[in-house]
Amino acid sequence: MEQTLQAHIQLPADLDVKYALLPGDPARVERVKLLLDDPVDLAFNREYKSVLGTYQGMKVLVISSGIGGPSTAIAIEELTRIGIEGIIRIGSCGSLHPAVHLGDVIIATAAVRDDGASKAYVDSAYPAVADLDLLIYLRSIAETERIPHRLGIVRSHDSFYTAREEQLTAYWSGNGIIGSDMETATLFVVGALRGLKTASLLNVVVGPDEGMEEGVRQFVSGEAATKQGEQNQIKLALSAFHAWHQAKGGE
Ligand SMILES: O=P(O)(O)O[C@H]1O[C@H](CO)[C@@H](O)[C@H]1O
Ligand SMILES: O=c1cc[nH]c(=O)[nH]1
């Protein structure tokens, strides 16, 4: 009998895969693909491009979320329905901290919920936090592999071009927030509500004293430090999933 596909991600429920990497950009899926064994293209519907492969014998799915909370929440819901148990976002972000530089990987411990999607699910008093087991694996691997990184709280936002962006960045930076992206808060909240383990690794593509627009433009054109940061975040995410997989006895 033909398998019913999830409405948006267009994937069936019999892939038998538990771990998903979630970049925002569909183009990043292609770059993850180069690091996997036996990659197979699955689907590309709207912003959701997916590839299935293996990493050190462990099956892993890569699927893009598109930009922002709503499309991310849809991806999380449909991934849960096909049996995914852990999601690590491999995103890009801006630095809000003077010592967090281009190409550093932020390991988000929690996120300020300035997104709209997570509020559609649950009261804002509910925290947006990463899974502790994944955080422990990620920190240990980043240290061992000497990947430039920093753990801390990020802010997820819904706007990019309002007149208040600089003011908002200064406010949150002044309150100890180290980076900003657009999906981490949604991932942490919706993932927790659905019983998933989630983490978010953010490659810094906008430096602490740089404008958002210019940083993102440089990243897209292949700036060297941010290219390396992307490789680092992908390898870190794959290694953390592998460590978790091994801890479960390879099941
Ligand atoms: O590079 P990705 O993963 O899309 O992440 C960041 O880039 C986009 C904005 O340029 C937003 O999605 C933001 O969170
Ligand atoms: O502040 C920033 C910079 C890059 N990307 C984002 O989503 N936010």
From TrEMBL:
InterPro entries xref list: Nucleoside_phosphorylase_CS, Nucleoside_phosphorylase_d, Nucleoside_phosphorylase_sf
The keyword Transferase is assigned to this record: yes
Keyword Glycosyltransferase: yes
Biological processes annotated in GO: nucleoside catabolic process
Keywords: Glycosyltransferase, Transferase
EC number: 2.4.2.3
Gene Ontology terms, MF aspect: uridine phosphorylase activity
Family annotation (PROSITE patterns): PNP_UDP_1 (PS01232)
Domain (Nucleoside phosphorylase): residue spans on this chain: 18-204
One GO cellular component term noted in the UniProt record for this chain: cytosol
Catalytic activity line of the entry: uridine + phosphate = alpha-D-ribose 1-phosphate + uracil
Family per similarity comment: Belongs to the PNP/UDP phosphorylase family.
Protein name (record): Uridine phosphorylase
The organism's taxonomic lineage, starting at the top: Bacteria, Bacillati, Bacillota, Bacilli, Lactobacillales
